[in-house]
Design a protein that fits this description.
Layout (H helix, E strand, L loop, with lengths): L2 H4 L12 H15 L22 H17 L6 H9 L2 E3 L3 E3 L5 H14 L5 E6 L5 H15 L4 E5 L3 H17 L10 E2 L3 E8 L4 E11 L14 E4 L8 H8 L4 E2 L2 E2 L2 E6 L9 H8 L6 E6 L15 H15 L4 H10 L4 H4 L11 H13 L5 E7 L5 E5 L5 E3 L10 E6 L15 E7 L8 E8 L4 H14 L5 E3 L3 H13 L6 E3 L9 E5 L5 H18 L6 H8 L9 H15 L6 H8 L3 E6 L2 E6 L2 E2 L14
Helix pairs in contact: 2-10, 3-4, 4-6, 6-7, 13-17, 16-18, 17-18
């Protein structure tokens, strides 16, 4: 590396290289380069506006040529990017009023926006790094569409009412400073609307395109009742009510049963457990919402060569070395930096909250994996069998979720329940669910696994108790450990009356010198027990995060222990881990189950073959056609 390159801003000097980080640099660079990022080998320059003097004909020919290029595109640029690059001005932090610099990522992005706009029914969702400049790009896009299309109505919003107004000022700045011969007439120019029309009292006619841009506050009903050809949602990663807003705003793009308007949803991710949940939903389930993805990652438009191409290796190196430096500081600052300059999708969707249990990075990774590749599960409910026992009835509306059906293991499962207190209670932020987790104990090479979760709040608590009792019977009569909160004693009384065999003994205290169980039913949450549970959940995430199948459990781990938090399933899961920690039989579960299973062999008796278990005939002998056995 040359000294000149070492001195370039953002370039990590060769003498500061660390081999451990360099390995990650090489790995990530190879991964990104394998996608063949778009590059150019020519230097794009802004057009020079000639001095026409009094030559009106030459001026008119030049203007018509530029209008043609803005409409049809030129030199591998779509028209909207040609107009943005050459005829629009933006405000730079340091340089003030400038025409945008050429960036290959911006050219690629403009081509995608052009294609999406011309594909009926399609939209676009974008996650981006911080300070990329997407707001200026979309402002230029909106001005372009209203300038070159008739009756083209655009609705937009940002993360707050003030931010929506600030975004709108960028539209007005671009319109005010663009090349005069392209500037469309505007009759209405308020802080929240522009209408590209003007009335001439002499001719009593309107001139202009009749298009409009409307800015609204990001409330659930902010867009309701409007009609749009294009919908732009800026800073989507910072909007708590994004999905509620979308539920109304999408209708603005609909014509009867067909989407005719184009939605653009973009932004830097916020905390995925809070405001960023909506943008993550759109990104990971883009096909469900008819959206195309376009990612602008930390290495895009960060460090570039003379042609505007991304210097991917140098950019990734700067990101990773900066991460390493911030790692020693505030945890929230460190995680936010990862999210602001993501190298992968997992970086962008990192949970920022410092509360909860389990690594936020691992929680984020598994949440993305489950949303992109949903686990095999069946929803349903339980019903008793006529001859005793229970059956599971699949039903998409059922509240019992089964990940693995029971298999005949002795001491193979463990269950726990976080109960609730009263009947006829509507679920609010101040009331809790009843929640049960059933885990399969580790056997052989298999880790502990969630096989069933049941979280609900029925009007009658006894309805939940009965469904749970049948589920426990189904899983080989596994007893459940009840947390003895206010509702726990009520649940304990019910089970003692109807299903006493399904009540689990309390594990001994974590301070006890001996493991095992006490001769008493249920368990109370104490400060010591909570510390024990949080430690077990942290360790479970560290060692077994890839085997966790439940999105509900992942989200609850992020808010575990917070006031008014919905963490009932996480608590039940934690009690299961407490039981397994105290159960010496966990590691022997496979041997014990094998001992209980039939050990059989085939034995020739006369001219027949019989199936024998420990010397006893298992079932009626059957004749075999093979003459070898008939001699």
């Amino acid at each position: 590396m040359s000294k000149e390159k070492d001195d370039k801003p953002g370039i990590i000097r060769l003498v500061d290289y660390q081999e451990e980080i360099e390995q990650e640099v090489r790995l990530q660079t190879a991964r990104v380069m394998a996608t063949n990022p778009f590059r150019v080998d020519k230097k794009y320059k802004h057009i020079e506006i000639p001095d026409f003097g009094d030559d009106r004909r030459a001026r008119l020919e030049y203007e018509m040529q530029e209008i043609e290029r803005c409409v049809r595109g030129y030199d591998n640029m779509p028209g909207r990017y040609y107009a943005y690059f050459n005829h629009m001005f933006i405000k730079h932090k340091e340089r003030g009023k400038i025409r945008p610099d050429f960036r290959t990522i911006q050219l690629s992005f403009a081509k995608v926006r052009e294609r999406v706009l011309n594909t009926r029914g399609l939209g676009l969702v974008t996650i981006k790094r911080r300070q990329y400049g997407a707001s200026w790009e979309f402002s230029g896009d909106n001005i372009y569409d209203c300038t070159f299309n008739r009756d083209f109505d655009i609705g937009m919003n940002s993360k707050s009412e003030m931010d929506s107004r600030n975004l709108f000022t960028k539209h007005k700045y671009i319109h005010r400073n663009m090349s005069p011969f392209l500037k469309a007439l505007v009759s209405t120019d308020r802080r929240d609307a522009m209408i590209f029309n003007k009335y001439d009292p002499k001719t009593q006619k309107y001139s202009g395109t009749g298009s409009s841009i409307t800015s609204v506050a990001p409330t659930p009903t902010g867009h309701a009742g409007n009609q749009y050809r294009k919908l732009v949602i800026d800073e989507a990663g910072e909007q708590i009510d994004l999905m509620a807003l979308w539920s109304n705003a999408e209708d603005c793009c609909m014509q009867e049963v067909e989407r005719v308007g184009t939605p653009y949803i973009f932004g830097t991710m916020g905390d995925t457990s809070k405001a960023g949940a909506g943008l993550m939903e759109f990104w990971l389930r883009n096909e469900l919402y008819n959206l195309e993805r376009f990612g602008i990652y930390g290495y895009n438009a960060l460090i570039m060569d003379e042609f505007g191409n991304d210097q991917i290796e140098d950019s990734i190196r700067w990101i990773l070395y900066t991460r390493k430096k911030k790692e020693a500081g505030s945890d929230i600052v460190y995680r936010k930096f990862i999210q602001k300059y993501p190298i992968t999708d997992q970086d962008a969707f990192l949970t920022l909250s410092g509360t909860g249990v389990g690594s936020p990075i691992l929680r984020g990774k598994q949440e993305i994996r489950l949303m992109e590749n949903p686990p095999q599960l069946v929803k349903g409910w339980m019903r008793p069998k006529s001859g005793g026992g229970a059956d599971f009835v699949p039903d998409p509306k059922g509240e019992i979720i089964v990940y693995e059906r029971p298999i005949p293991l002795v001491n193979g499962y463990v269950a726990a329940t976080d109960p609730a207190e009263d009947d006829e209670v509507k679920k609010t932020r101040d009331t809790s669910n009843l929640s049960t987790a059933i885990l399969a104990k580790p056997t052989g090479l298999l880790p502990p696994r969630l096989v069933l979760e049941y979280t609900a709040r029925p009007n009658k608590l006894a309805d939940y108790y009965l469904q749970l009792a049948l589920a426990l019977e189904w899983y080989n009569n596994t007893p459940t450990l009840i947390e003895l909160n206010k509702g726990g004693f009520r649940m304990k009384d019910w089970f003692e009356q109807y299903y006493p065999k399904l009540l689990a003994w309390s594990p001994k205290s974590s301070n006890s010198a001996k493991t095992g169980f006490e001769v008493r039913i249920g368990i109370k949450m104490t400060p010591d027990r909570k510390i024990q549970m949080m430690g077990l959940l942290d360790g479970h995430w560290e060692h077994y995060w890839e085997s966790i199948p439940s999105l509900r459990f992942i989200k609850e781990c992020g808010v575990f222990g917070d006031e008014h938090a919905d963490d009932d399933l996480a608590v039940a899961y934690g009690w299961c881990l407490v039981q397994m920690q105290n159960d010496k039989r966990v590691s022997k579960a496979l041997d014990a189950s094998n001992a209980a299973l039939p050990h059989f062999n085939y034995r020739k008796v006369g001219n027949t073959i019989q199936l024998v278990n420990h010397g006893n005939v298992m079932h009626n002998p059957r004749k075999l056609s093979n003459p070898l056995f008939n001699r």
